[in-house]
Amino acid sequence: MVEQAVAEAPDTGVKSGHHGGVERSDAEAVNKKETRSLYQKRIKIYPKMVKGAFRRWKWVIMALTLGVYYLTPWIRWDRGANAPDQAVLIDFPGRRFYFFFIEIWPQEVYYLTGLLILAAIGLFLITSLAGRVWCGYTCPQTVWTDLFIAVEKIFQGDRAARIRLDKAPWGATKIFRKAGTQVAWVIIAICTGGAWVFYFADAPALMGDLLAFQAPPVSYITIGVLAFTTYLLGGFAREQVCTYMCPWPRIQGGLLDEESLVITYNEDRGEPRGARKKDTHPDNLGDCVACNQCVAVCPMGIDIRDGQQLECITCGLCIDACNTVMDKVGLPRNLIEYSTLANVERVRAGEKPRLRLIRPRTLVYSGLIVLVGVIMLFSLITRADLDLSILRDRNPLFVTLSDGSIRNGYTVKIINKQHRERTFRLEIEGLPGAALAVVGSGVTAEALVVGPDNLASYRVFATVPQAALQDSATDVRFRIVDREGGETTNNSVFRGPQ
Amino acid sequence: MADNKEVDHVSGVETTGHEWDGIRELNNPLPRWWLWTFYACCIWAVAYWVVMPAWPLISSHTTGMIGYSSRAQLAKTVEQAREAQSAYLTRIDAASLEEIAGDQELLDFALAGGGSAFAVNCSQCHGRGAAGYVGYPNLNDDDWIWGGDLAAIDQTIHFGIRSDHDETRLNEMPAYGRDEILTREEIDDVAEYVLSLSASGSAAAAAAAARGQEIFAEQCSACHMEDGKGDYELGAPNLTDAIWLYGGEKTAVVESITNSRAGMMPAWTGRLDETTIKQLAIYVHSLGGGE
Predict the structure, then answer these.
(1) Which residues of B are known binding-site members for heme c?
(2) In which residue ranges of chain B is CATH 1.10.760.10 found?
């Protein structure tokens, strides 16, 4: 690596050097506060590949998150004969959301709301503890950009080679390398959009349809749109998404405090920076050897030595780069490290650095997570698989029959969330002498049938002798009883003349 | 303009030359993405003029290259809806009323179709909930003048009551008072008797009711029957039940005997197609009083 960089130097205009056994770079932090202008064209960043603990973490998390995204729709989950066997499925035509053992009806969308609330507070908690780890490791923009940069490296080489290639005149090699990159990006982008649609339909069947060009147009459109945005955001927009488009860097400023972990350059130890001869450490210099490797590897185009910046996604790659150099020059590691602003002050004051994980802020966030989680779990466990709703006729409010008795009409809706057909007996309470009749041929209140995982609606008439009514409005309760167990009730009103 | 160009010495940016109380407007360039979006919109607009109907002319408008028209789109949507319904409509056409009522699928379709046809054509008199009004029968109850089974309802909808159709349901109650068939006192007595049939008369008027019974037997029982229960064939209402088309107070009954009543319902055959009338009959029958 080192030798290669030196060899490249003369004809690339990239001033890389080999000084004191350390690879040097003249990489500029293009997004440095002083150099960044709003009206300036974007300066391309050529992040250098680095090796180290954080880079390894990023690979692992990338594999994990991409794996979850691409493979989830293919997991099967047996729900019996009357339901789809896809573990995670958003079934719009059937108006159901399936998530392993959970099945959510449209009116239960508050479970999704709860899940989003949990995710949001979880993000708050993680951010207040460890800073922007979401941005640095798991955000889709970060993961796909990282993937796109890795592909770029395969076709065009590392930082120096890419800069040289961009400056080189067009020729067969350059065309091949550039075109290869684009083709690979497009394929990844299409796969990304392609995986998305599998969440909304039976994945194997849709895959067949897609390949046979017989899938619904909306799936091709969705794939196209997502492929385009993936290609654009991962291949070209990259760090601009985080800096200009994403609200999260602004929001998280309010979630961090001086005890949150952030990537910190230990200025007191590092400054004044300067190059030095191999194995010498002059007293007038700090530990920073001014090799600029931290800048060369930064995908955001900043210099961490300038301090905390909005652009920093805390991916830790500069830590890896610096540690590699520190090891080489025989200085202690962690000149750049995950630390807290409070610890920087503590070290400055001669105290021992410590990590304060338990703070009012983190306690509040954890408490909220537990609270929302318990509420959701409770409601999920106690969730009824049977629901009864009663809609009383409002026009006419009641009907007088020939013999003077009073009749009310109701629309009775029964929701059966079980995957088997159920038969219910309908009863009315609070109205002595009331008779129930169901509209429809051969249907009686004794046997109302509701299909598996379905809703059934019945028109029901309740009739009582006028003498039985005490008031113009009588509170009644409808009850449905399954012969094989299970019942539920709902309240309504029986109206009569004044 | 070119001569007015001046540069703000603080920001180093050119100004527009506009000045308000010493504050000068900087002429910063537009953001690139905004500019490109603006250009794209311009191109889009021009293309839209060509592709879509856009410009009004004296008596028409430019039709655009693809010939889009929202009117045609609506017609197509309606056509698609008709097509989707056609399978059911054909089956309803072929089936008898009893067959429709016995087939849950057809019944559901007919109830929905009948309901909307009722809202458009019938609710003006019978009310949106079919509960009627004084003089307009309540179709929810179990009291029928001309019969409440499917066939009778179907017949009534087809030909109406006292309509201008040849096969209309028709009867005429004499105006006993206006035509001086009965005296005021006699009418009063008959009214008391009629009210006593449904046990809504007063005990004090028992003597009058007894006198009225004789007159009823003489004048009214031919249509309303001896027991006052009326007759579907003749369209004579049942006077013994709790339901009164024109009100159950004595004044209303006296008014009915004195001047007669003759409500009118139009014939719907010829105005609505057979399938719609079938669905209407099914719907009315389902409202709660169908026999």
Answers:
(1) 122, 125-126, 173, 220, 223-224, 265
(2) 72-166+266-286, 184-259
Size of interface A-B (CB pairs under 8 A): 58
Q: At what angle do helices B206-219 and B184-197 cross, to 10 degrees?
A: 100
Q: Around Cβ A369, how many Cβ atoms within 10 Å? A: 18
What's the pLDDT at A19?
54
Task: Look at residues A220, A224, A155 and name the one whose alpha carbon lies nearest to residue A184.
Answer: A155
CB contact A400 to B (< 8 Å):
yes
Q: Which CATH superfamily is domain A386-495 in?
A: Immunoglobulins (2.60.40.10)
Q: How far is A40 from chain B (nearest CA, A)?
A: 9
A contacts of B28 (beta carbons < 8 Å):
39
Give the percent of chain B with pLDDT over 90: 73
pLDDT of A2 above 70: no
- Residue A141 and residue A134 in contact, taking contact as beta carbons nearer than 8 Å: no
Tell me if chain B has a CB within 8 Å of the CB of A284. no
Q: CB B143 to CB A402 under 8 A?
A: yes
Distance CA B227, CA B230 (A): 8
Banded model confidence at residue A101, pLDDT cuts 50, 70, 90: confident
- Name the minimum distance, in Å, from the CA of B169 to any CA of chain A: 23
| Residue closest to A426 by CA, chosen among A495, A492, A497, A496 | A492
Q: Say whether residue A172 is in contact with chain B using an 8 A CB cutoff.
A: no
Q: Which of A241-255, B217-231, B260-274 has the lowest mean pLDDT?
A: A241-255
CATH 1.10.760.10 fits B184-259, yes or no: yes
